[in-house]
Specification:
Layout lengths: L1 H31 L5 E11 L3 H12 L10 H8 L2 H10 L2 H5 L16 H11 E6 L4 E8 L2 H59 L4 H31 L7 H26 L6 H38 L2 E7 L12 H31 L1
Antiparallel strand pairs: 1-3, 1-4, 2-3
Helix pairs in contact: 1-11, 2-10, 4-7, 7-10, 8-9, 8-10
Organism: Marivivens niveibacter
GO cellular component, one term: plasma membrane
Keywords: Coiled coil, Membrane, Transmembrane, Transmembrane helix
């Protein structure tokens, strides 16, 4: 009888220690704590600017070596939110660690003053939680703080930090994809400058802006001389065939001298056009046309490179990511921890399970000893 009473008293003591005390402490803590946690929630998506026009640019993008159809950046954003970089950015704009240390919080919830950087990161990841809905490509961000306004403020600051991160991703993508096309444009611009410089040096060296104008001038002069020569030869022929040719001998001699002069002028002009000697017009035209053709080719290359660069920019702009806010950070009205009606029953059930396991183990041990 005494042993039975002793067992009952031990069971009662065990029940009080394992079940009653933890449940009472939890309820008391939930009632008197001065550092409840409030949770602000927000939802956003990471979208791109691709529309129907991006399909038309797809072929051009492939032609210039740009691969479209990047995987969603939503998981990159989630990893960033959980990273030390996001924590450091939040520390700069808000002072995360200072807020979560004393005088806020209590022994169970505050950030210890001696916490290491890894401990601060782990604490941050417990109070800032990002969940991804892969089906809808939506991130749900939950921020817990010791007061509702601060929870909302931290969530709002994190949205700005995430938006800056997305913009940085856009800038890096644009820089990486366009760098090659930009290099082509710069090379084409340099080729145009070199071609223009070579043409300018040729003009300064030869004292001619356009040798074709000089050719036209020589051809016009030759035509005029040939017309004049034809007139002189006609007059000369009439005088030589006349019956009184001796009487017109002075005139015939003058016309013959004029004919020889015109022939020399025509020959000189034709030599300037057709001669292969250095400085001849034909050689100047050949060199000028070569330099001018090089300038035109360089200008065409520059135009094509510029078009490719603009096409690359248009394609990348169509792929730019942006933050689409689905719901702004909420201002919580009720605490999320501790909740008397939620956490006390949870602790009670858990302690009852522990008590049942201990009691079962004790009974099994007692029966084993009897055997």
């Amino acid at each position: 009888m005494q042993k039975a009473r002793s067992r009952i008293s031990l069971v009662t003591l065990l029940f009080i220690v394992v079940v009653i005390v933890p449940t009472f402490v939890t309820g008391y803590y939930a009632l008197v704590t001065k550092a409840p946690l409030f949770r602000s929630q927000t939802q956003f998506a990471v979208e791109d600017r691709q529309q129907g026009s991006s399909k038309m640019l797809g072929g051009l993008a492939t032609a210039i070596g740009i691969v479209s159809g990047e995987p969603s950046a939503i998981y990159s954003v989630k990893r960033f939110i959980e990273s030390p970089d996001a924590l450091n950015a939040l520390e700069e704009v808000f002072g995360f660690a200072e807020y979560y240390r004393a005088p806020y919080g209590d022994y169970f919830t505050q950030l210890p003053d001696s916490a290491s950087s890894d401990a601060i990161l782990a604490y941050y990841q417990r109070h800032v939680v990002a969940r991804v809905s892969s089906k809808e490509n939506i991130i749900s961000l939950e921020v817990s703080a010791f007061d509702a306004a601060t929870a909302q403020a931290i969530a709002d600051n994190l949205l700005r930090i995430v938006e800056a991160f997305v913009n940085d991703l856009n800038a890096r993508a644009l820089n990486d994809q366009v760098r090659f096309q930009q290099a082509n444009v710069e090379a084409a611009q340099q080729n145009v400058l070199d071609a223009r410089l070579a043409l300018t040096e040729w003009r300064n060296r030869n004292g001619a802006v356009d040798p074709m104008a000089q050719v036209q001038m020589l051809q016009g002069m030759i035509g005029n001389l040939e017309t004049e020569l034809s007139s002189v030869q006609s007059d000369l022929s009439l005088l030589e065939e006349s019956e009184d040719a001796d009487r017109f001998k002075p005139r015939i001699d003058a016309l013959q001298d004029q004919e020889r002069i015109i022939l020399r002028q025509i020959s000189s002009a034709r030599d300037r056009l057709a001669s292969s000697a250095e400085g001849a017009v034909s050689m100047q035209i050949d060199e000028y046309e070569r330099l001018y053709a090089a300038l035109e080719f360089a200008a065409n290359d520059l135009e094509l490179a510029t078009m490719s660069l603009e096409t690359a920019r248009q394609v990348i702009l169509q792929q730019q990511k942006y933050l689409l806010i689905i719901s702004n950070p909420s201002l919580p009205s009720d605490r999320t921890f501790p909740i008397l009606t939620k956490h006390v029953p949870i602790v009670f059930v858990a302690c009852m399970l522990i008590f049942a396991i201990i009691a079962l183990f004790a009974n099994v041990t007692r029966d084993y000893r009897r055997v």
